[in-house]
Automatic annotation (TrEMBL):
It comes from Eiseniibacteriota bacterium. GO terms for molecular function: calcium ion binding. It comes from the Bacteria. It holds the Pfam family HYDIN_VesB_CFA65-like_Ig. CDD domains: PKD. Residues 1-26 form the signal peptide. Transmembrane segments: none annotated. This is PKD domain-containing protein. It is found in: Cell projection, Cilium; Cytoplasm.
Length: 558
């Protein structure tokens, strides 16, 4: 016997010993081992056959479900075995999940089961479904997930009463305490209120300041929502009228000068409720205040300010009103310059006895405080034979040259002086004229300064000497202004109409080019008062050995 045969015999002996007695006997009778093993496996497969359970899906997720609602998902139970499946129990770990009972599933078939999630709170509900049966593959487990959502709670608001012209303000609030969902609460207000009532849906803030025209009873609904569920309250609002607010009037726009008292007034203030006592509170915008209805205030610095006035009544409830006025404070008084017939042109081509009327309009200081003798006109262009002209003090009258209802003061300047003033300005060109003057006030003088661009019409002169008197006619004295184009000695003499020398004001006095001034007091060289009449003023200058001269008439009226 070969070694392989010996081994085979030994193995067979071991197998026969280990197998069941029947198998061992068969082997003992010489049956082939391989055949026996195959037959035994077949008999055993027939023995373990029966129901086999298959469950799908392996998990169910319901997301967020509101309290009082039910979410349903389908679970399929299949029997892939060769015998009827008997289900003994379907057990849920969380009572929020339920389904109909299933007891049997025929072999080769399946059953759909509707599993419901019905939360009664706002919590998360992780759980399992355990299916017990006689399936050969044992117990099956399905994972469950669901989130309950509780409705938010609107905190009580209650009915409201508000008096007209006061403000009703409250904040609508809510909570979502019994809820693990991270909800964002939003608020809303229903219809029923006038547009003047405002509501912020993000913060829940309500505000309404009704007028007397909105008196009455109103109903609206306030709601809080978490995006899925909500809570609401119907609110009644009553608007009553027991008082009307005053109307403050701060008096419009004010203009003034530094260090000068400025009068404020509230005369336009009123209250529709008779018999009420009003209180006043002024804020002048520079840190100073007053409780006087019509106060006087002095600003120490120039600038633009806003004066505020608050007026309150003594009704119930107390009501107030505010008004504001612009205040302009200057170191000098500005004015508007006006020309006749709304013109923008000054024509001094013709001189003689002609003059140009100019209106000065300002509202800060009384015209009675303006010194007529201080008013001068000049310009910002190239200098002429004179640098400025004085106003004729005989013409200082009130008017309204631009017909705007605001009084102006009208003054006149002689064309002769203006032609000398504008002599070097190109004809028919625009120049800026400047008018200055002085207001005489109790605390000192306040300067006047006004400017305006105008078109100048002028006939240019080349006379080397120009001279004129102001005032003219005069009494008892006048100022003689003379302009020379060159340096050199100047002589000025006054003659009567008969050619007789009356007075020598200058005699060969060295003079530089420019404008100069000398006064004549109506006295002769003999220190006697000269009579009324016409006098000739002759001014001469020696230039390069030649004598240049100019004369004009001056009239003394006594």
């Amino acid at each position: 016997m070969s070694n392989r045969a010996v081994v085979r015999v030994a193995l067979l002996g071991l197998l026969v010993f280990a197998l069941a007695p029947g198998i061992a006997a068969a082997a003992g009778q010489g049956q082939d081992l391989t055949e026996m093993l195959a037959s035994n496996a077949a008999s055993q497969a027939t023995a373990v056959s029966g129901p086999v359970i298959m469950v799908s899906p392996a998990s169910l997720d319901y997301g967020v479900v509101n309290n009082g609602s039910t979410g349903s998902l389908t679970l399929n139970i299949a029997n892939t075995g060769d015998a009827t499946l008997h289900i003994s129990s379907m057990a849920y770990s969380d009572g929020a999940y339920t389904s109909p009972s299933v007891t049997t599933v025929a072999n080769g078939s399946s059953v759909n089961v509707s599993v419901s999630f019905s939360p009664v709170d706002g919590n998360s509900h992780p759980g399992t479904l355990t299916i017990m049966s006689d399936a050969s593959n044992g117990t099956q487990t399905v994972n469950l997930a669901g989130q309950g959502n509780s409705a938010p709670t609107l905190n009580p608001i209650g009915d409201k009463t508000v008096t007209a012209f006061t403000t009703l303000a409250f904040t609508v609030t809510g909570s979502d305490a019994d809820d693990t969902v991270d909800d964002v609460l939003s608020f809303s207000m229903g219809t029923g209120l006038p547009p003047s009532a405002t509501f912020n849906s993000g913060t829940g803030e309500f505000s309404w300041s009704p007028t007397s025209a909105e008196a009455g009873n109103y109903t609206t609904t306030f709601t809080v929502s978490d995006g899925r569920l909500s809570d609401s309250e119907i609110v009644h609002i009553a608007v009553t009228v027991t008082n009307h607010p005053p109307t403050a009037n701060a008096g419009g726009t004010y203009f003034g000068a530094t260090n000068r008292p400025l009068q404020f007034h509230s005369t336009g203030t009123s209250d529709p409720d008779a018999g009420q006592n009003l209180t006043y509170a002024w804020d002048f915008g520079d840190g100073a205040t007053s409780n006087d209805p019509n106060p006087v205030h002095t600003y120490l610095a120039p600038g633009s300010f806003v004066a505020g006035l608050r007026v309150c009544d003594d009704g119930s409830p107390q009501l107030c009103d505010d008004d504001f006025a612009a205040v302009t404070i200057q170191t000098e008084i500005g004015a508007q310059l006006l020309l006749e017939n709304f013109s923008s042109t000054i024509d001094v081509r013709k001189t003689g006895a002609r003059s140009t009327k100019l209106g000065i309009e300002e509202v800060l200081l009384p015209y009675t405080d303006l010194n007529p003798a201080s008013i001068r006109i000049s310009h910002t262009g190239p200098a002429g034979f004179v640098t400025e002209c004085a106003a004729d003090t005989r013409f200082f009258v009130y008017g309204d040259m631009d017909a705007d209802g605001v009084t102006d003061i009208d003054v006149r300047f002689t064309n002769k002086c203006l032609s000398n003033l504008f002599n070097n300005i190109p004809n028919n060109s625009v120049a800026t004229i400047v008018v200055t003057g002085t207001f005489q006030e109790s605390g000192g003088t306040v300067p006047l300064h006004a400017e305006r661009a105008v078109t100048i019409l002028v006939k240019h002169r080349t006379t080397p000497i120009l001279a004129m008197a102001n005032p003219n006619p005069f009494n008892p004295e006048t100022s003689i202004s003379y302009t020379v184009k060159n340096d050199g000695p100047v002589t000025m003499r006054i003659y009567g109409v008969d050619g007789r020398l009356v007075r020598t004001l200058k005699s060969g006095e060295e003079t530089v080019a420019g404008t100069h001034e000398v006064r004549w007091n109506g006295m002769s060289d003999q220190n006697r008062h000269v009579p009324s009449g016409i006098y000739f003023v002759k001014t001469s200058q020696v230039v390069g050995g030649a004598v240049e001269s100019a004369s004009f008439k001056a009239t003394l009226l006594k």
